[in-house]
Design a protein that fits this description.
Blueprint (H helix, E strand, L loop, with lengths): L4 H32 L1 H11 L4 H26 L6 H25 L2
Length: 111
């Protein structure tokens, strides 16, 4: 059985929602560490300038973008727009492409 692209977009929307909860906790932990002391700030700064930081930054941006664009797609479907088979497939594919494009753009802009 092969799932349609809309199913992948919907499943990814749910998964990225869960990942956002985890990433928010992680981000708040890093913020707390950076604000507690100068050494904590230096440790967080050192973490963010690692060679792998752009990859993980792009991954975080992809999670947020995928969830945002997927949520907008679901809201559009909730108001009965784009329900046709073709329109639904196009909007799901657009969500996937936009999320990846946003993440790649973030990786290229990483300092």
């Amino acid at each position: 059985m092969r799932l349609p692209v809309g199913a992948y977009a919907s499943i990814l929307h749910r998964i990225t929602g869960l990942l956002l909860i985890v990433l928010t906790g992680l981000g708040l932990g890093l913020l707390k560490a950076s604000l507690q002391s100068a050494s904590g700030f230096d440790a967080v700064t050192a973490l963010l300038v690692q060679p792998s930081a752009p990859f993980f930054g792009a991954l975080v941006v992809w999670v947020a973008a995928q969830h945002l664009y997927g949520g907008l797609r679901h809201l559009t479907l909730d108001v009965h727009q784009g329900f046709g088979r073709g329109a639904s497939r196009r909007s799901a594919a657009l969500v996937l492409v936009l999320a990846v494009s946003t993440a790649l753009g973030a990786a290229l802009l990483w300092p």
